[in-house]
Amino acid sequence: MTEETVLDTAHAAMQADLEDDGARLAFYGHLADGELFLLLKEESRGESVNPELFELEAGEDAPPDRYVLVFDQEDRLAAFAEGPAPYAALPGRVIAAMVAGSGIGLGVNLGVAPSSILIPAAAVDWLAQTLGPAPEEVEGQVRALEPPTGLSDRLITGLSTKLAVAAGLCDHAVLARALYDDQSEGLVLAFIDAAEGSESALARAAQEAMTFSGADQRLDVAFFASGDEVTTRLAKVGLRFDMPEPEPEPEAPSVRPAPGSDPSKPPILK
Questions:
Q1: Domains and CATH numbers, the chain
Q2: Taking the model in full, what pTM does it have?
Q3: Alpha helices in the chain (DSSP H)
């Protein structure tokens, strides 16, 4: 029996209260962010994959509902297939985008885990659409910055989780409440010393954290250098998120000498 996974925990929280929109969004967030093992009919050839389809009768005179089968662990896929089977390991968001609009749903961990669930095609389409749009650029003059009080634990956890995958893209981020010159207000997440070209990825991560936390608040993102005056102001009132250090590049494998090339170590004969 495998250990409980993040997806198992999120699924249990969702099932515990089916009226809790936040728990349902959190489950979809984990599904999108995690790596999933997609069951294939045959070994993939290059970038082309041919998923196995699972059909369920939908009723009289109705075509069967179709699902691709995904698992959050390789051994769960093997348990379902009752042995080794071809698969493609892909982020959930990629699989959702791949099948969106085709009338195909997702069968997740079917029969092999507590998070076993059928996600209908309409829900897959929604997930792909939610993940698809890029954040819009807006302009506004901030007249005051305040501490970001009243935040839910789910939002803070969601931001921490999303920003953890941004290791190396910026030095740190600061969340504050902003008051604008048009009398509106909202949260602003400032990325400090962002790497060139990383702005779109960081903005999307922040947007998705808000969406899947269920927070009904405006969130703007901004980018500043550590020497900017506003960065000092943010540090005084904001909630800081430190970026983890990027994992070091794996060392290149050492080249082993050919057998017999070292006279002090003759090859072993069998």
A1: 6-131 (no CATH), 142-242 (3.30.460)
A2: 0.69
A3: 6-16, 21-33, 74-81, 92-99, 121-131, 153-164, 199-213, 229-237
